[in-house]
Amino acid sequence: MPESSSVRYAIYYTPAQKHPLTEAARAWLGRDAFSGCSLAVPVKLGPAGGPHLFRDTMTAAPRRHGFHATLKAPFQLRESCSVEELERAIRRFAAAWPPCPIGPLKIKLLSGFFALEPVGPIPALRGLASRIVEKFDVFRAPLSQSELRRRLRRPLDETETTYLVQWGYPYVFDRFRFHMTLTDRVPAQSRPDVQQELNAVFAPLLSEDYRVDALSLFVQEHSHSDFVVRSQYALSSRPLKEAVI
Fold first, then answer.
1. Which of 242, 217, 222 lies closest to 9 in space, CA to CA?
2. Which of helix, strand or coil describes residue 118?
């Protein structure tokens, strides 16, 4: 049975629910993408003694999407497809693809926002992401004209515009950059303080030899809801988690 056209799905990477990096990101963002629960965010006192509300005001987008790296950007299902078919396809793909090494991570400022990204380039990671974009595009409904116009408000070059029209997302293939977003865009004057806060939370966790070892299917039930983990599949193994939302 086809899903409602308001529902969107995305194929993301996120570490396991109990991994220390996931737990740190959950505390930082104030939301658990696995359970969908919001969490209390610690309040830091500002220079004048009042509350410093950085995390509430500059983490809205990553909080909504949940801690992740995009492999297949959010999309609506084609009318002829069901989420069960999508999940079966992800399961088959995961069973045939080995984990992909990432290595240590670093905190990086990207176009004004902070994110975690690999210390060095990982060609195999781009190959995995490209294959996922191609493999699962058969499930993606074409962008509506209004959605296309909205996305074209962002400055894109000719290649990115072509990717957006053809694949529903501009940052794929050679424009793909693996990253796990931690903030919205941060004003230049606030970046040193934000960097300091991020270092305190994440720096002790970044030296691990990370790898993409599972694919996570996230779901957004309607345009105003948060993304949550619907199911998670270990690469070259059986599903780690399957939970119907």
1. 217
2. strand
Q: How many CB atoms lie within 10 A of CB 50?
A: 9
Distance CA 7, CA 169 (A): 17
In a domain, 2, yes or no: no
The pTM of this model reads 0.90
CATH assignment of the domain containing 219: 3.90.1140.10
Model pLDDT for residues 8-22, shown as the tens digit of each residue: 999 999 999 999 999
Query: d(Cα 85, Cα 90) in Å, to the nearest integer?
Result: 9
The parent domain of residue 75 ranges over: 8-242
Is residue 143 domain-resident? yes
Q: What is the DSSP letter of 237?
A: S
Contacts 24+ apart (CB under 8 A), 30-36: 30/55, 30/56, 30/59, 30/63, 31/63, 31/66, 31/226, 33/65, 33/66, 33/67, 33/68, 33/218, 33/226, 33/227, 33/228, 33/229, 34/228, 34/229, 34/241, 35/228, 36/226, 36/228, 36/245
Cα separation, 130 vs 72, in Å, equals 9
Q: Three-state DSSP class for 33?
A: coil
Express each pLDDT in 7-63 by its tens digit.
Answer: 999 999 999 999 999 999 999 999 999 999 988 665 554 444 434 456 777 899 999
